[in-house]
Amino acid sequence: MIAASRIVSVLRLLRPLRWPIAAVAILTVLLTLADWSSTAETARLREQGQNRLNVYASSLRNAIERYDALPVVLSTHPDIMALLRKPDGPGLRDRINRYLALSNNDTRSTVLYLLDAEGVTLAASNWETPQSYVGKNYAFRPYFLQAKEGRAGHFYGVGFTTHQPGYFLSYPVRDANKVIGVVVAKINLDMVEREWPRGGGPILVADSNGIVFLSNAPELKWRALAPLPAEMLRYIADTHQYGERREFAVLGLSDREPLDVGVERAELDLGGTSRSVLVQRMALGGVGWHLVALNDLAPVRQAVRHTLIGALFALLALASLLLYWRQYRRRMLDRLQASTELRHTQTVLEREVALRGGELAETQLRLQRETAERQKLEARLRIAHDKLLHAGKLAVLGQMTTALVRELGQPLAAVRVLTHALRGAPELAEGTRTHLDGIGVQAKRIAALTTRLGAYARRSDDRVGPVLLHGVIDNAVLLLETQIRHQQVRLDLDQPDARVRVSGNPAQLEQLLVNLLRNALDAVRTSPQPVIRVSVQRSGPRVQISIGDNGPGIAEPALATLFDPFSAPDGGSERLGLGLVTAKAIAGDCGGRLSAMNQTEGGAMFVLELSVVDWTP
Questions:
Q1: Could you tell me if 202 and 253 lie in one domain?
Q2: Does 77 lie in the same domain as 198?
Q3: Quick check: 547 and 574 in contact, CB under 8 A?
Q4: Do 430 and 542 sit in the same domain of this protein?
Q5: Mean pLDDT: which of 130-134, 220-224, 409-413, 531-535 is highest?
Q6: Phi and psi torsions of 114, nearest 5°
Q7: How many other C-beta atoms can be found within 10 angstroms of the C-beta atom of residue 90?
Q8: 147 and 81 in one domain?
């Protein structure tokens, strides 16, 4: 009893302070929510930035490792050893020039060249161009000095002759234990840079000097991550690593706040405008480079703002409910007190309570309906989230496909170079040369297939222009050649005029034809003698591409909604899903028209009509 009275006394003393206490409590809750929201959003941005760094680092490693073995393979060629021993040998220099030009064309490098022990170029793949390396001395270049010491050389810089940046790989040519020459391969990394999207924030690649030489933001290239000491500037000038460029503006990062190892928050100043960014770094082992990701922190501020607005609305709703409850409780007490004085007042109070009870029941019913609507909305959000996850998996699968195609490029290039080198050996039998020719043809065929897979995985630039229809159809058939052979499908191609050009986008038309051919392959899966017919017929300024099969055909009720999203009937095949919606959209973008019908002899037929570019009346 005494304790209860003390509590009542304390509450009475605190009553004048109830509003300041409530304000402090509300402010504390808001600050806690803001900090939680900022921390969660920053963690999300860090994970997103780390994933981007991993993807970009993988693509950069693949581009470099693809050519790692090229100088090593070239250094074993017997003619190169003979030329280094006798630089004035009759016909050797011309033969090596042509061999390097052919190898450069097969491997898609930039330049291949051979230096003697003094750094003078004896032969080069660009020997017939105005910017030929032949006769030039590159003894001052670090990659020559590294190979001269008997090890593989690596160097990124601006070409001394062409003034074009590139990555140089070198390897020594030994005669016994003596280095008598150096084979050098120059590759261009701009193709990797062009594949990096601009969205998601800038990505920088800096060399061991701390100078940015690759970036998806051109305004950040050739900047230094930190001020360069005088010794480093003298080294850059002596080696001509960056051509005639001698000064490098420092990347404007200020107010740095370390968050973790390799992660910090800073202010980025570009062109007089400043913004907060999340800076993440990753070392690229083996070459002394490191990647830097700059993610804008605007989403963090936006997430905090949304969290605070939601919390304020929730507090206002809670305050409204408390006020309503307080008023309701006060009325109930007043009526209970009045019931002891007048009986008729009790009757009125009962009616009022019944009325308020009805309002509460109606409110409860409304809340139940709102709860049901919210549950439906949550279910839709879960479905949308699953679709987004699936889309992310497909994007990673596309990147993995591109990386796999690039990985196959290196061994294929080595096989073709070694085959060509072995075929030139005079002591081989004629039958062995025939086998080597067969190996070269099969390697070229695999290279063509991987090239088409890489082109099909890359994103289209959506440009429309003249397209050779014969090539698009052949590429689509090439991509599905394995599935056609596995299903033992007879493919009839009727292309009377191989020179027809149509208006469209090559990648999109190729995707459209792949979708239609896959639908046909699905349709003939249960046919005893599956046949797919592809026919091209030109009529004036238009051309029709017909793709027919001898499958079960399309149900008549489904023809009307065939090109609607998610219109596949129960038990239908995947060829009646979103693939046809995409195909029809591509046909419209190219100014064409796509239709479907059932053939009288059985099976379905899709007809694609496009405009001929080179038609004249």
A1: yes
A2: no
A3: no
A4: no
A5: 531-535
A6: -120, 130
A7: 7
A8: yes
CA dihedral 401, 404, 408, 409 (to 10 degrees): 70
Q: Is residue 570 packed enough to be buried (19+ CB in 10 Å), middle (13-18) or exposed (0-12)? A: exposed
CA distance 263 to 53: 12
Clarify whether residues 254 and 179 are in a common domain.
no
CB 518, CB 512: distance < 8 Å: no
58 within some domain: no
pLDDT band at 319 (very low <50, low <70, confident <90, very high): confident
H helix or E strand, kind and range, residue 530: none
Dist. CA 394–CA 404, nearest whole Å: 15
Is there a domain that residue 131 lies in? yes
Give Cα separations from 69 to 65, 102, 170, 351, 537 (angstroms): 8, 17, 10, 94, 48
Domain co-membership, 378 together with 485:
no
Same domain (yes/no): 441, 518: no
Backbone phi and psi for residue 585, each to the nearest 5 degrees, phi listed first? -65, -40
Cα dihedral sign, 113-117-120-123: negative
Q: What is the 3-state secondary structure (H, E, C) of 158-197?
A: ECCCCCCEEEEEEEEEEECCEEEEEEEEEECCHHHHHHCC
User: For the segment 257-286, what is each residue's pLDDT rounded down to a tens digit?
Assistant: 787 777 888 777 776 677 788 888 888 776
Look up residue 281 and give its two tokens.
């770094």
**What are the pLDDT digits (tens) for 125-145?**
888 888 888 888 888 888 888
pLDDT of residue 428: 66
| 462 φψ region: left (φ > 0), alpha (ψ -120 to 50), beta (else) | left
| Residue 378 dihedral angles phi and psi, to the nearest 5° | -65, -40
From the CB of residue 99, how many other CB atoms can be counted at a distance below 10 Å?
Answer: 22
Identify the band that residue 598 occupies on the pLDDT scale cut at 50, 70 and 90: very high
d(CA 71, CA 113): 9
Supply the range of the domain harboring residue 489: 460-611
Q: pLDDT band for position 394 (50/70/90)? A: very low
Highest mean pLDDT among 122-136, 192-206, 566-580: 122-136
- What is the C-alpha to C-alpha distance for residues 120 and 137, in angstroms, rounded to an integer? 4
Among 459, 493, 516, the domain-final residue is: 459
Number of residues that make up the chain: 617
Percent of the chain with pLDDT over 90: 12
CATH number for the domain that contains residue 275: 3.30.450.20
Indicate whether 607 and 472 sit together in one domain: yes
Return d(Cα 617, Cα 610) in angstroms, integer: 17
Q: 3-state class of 123 per DSSP?
A: strand
Whether the CB-CB separation of 543 and 502 falls below 8 Å is answered with: yes
Tokens of residue 34, six digits: 């803001």
Q: Which residues contact 78 (CB under 8 A, 6 or more apart)?
A: 425
Q: What pLDDT is attached to residue 404?
A: 63
Classify residue 31: in a domain, yes or no.
no
Domain membership of residue 442 (yes or no) is yes
Please identify, among 300, 317, 344, the residue that sits at the C-terminal boundary of a domain.
300
Mean pLDDT for the chain? 79
Helix 343-423 with 430-457: angle, nearest 10 deg: 160
Counted domains in the chain: 4
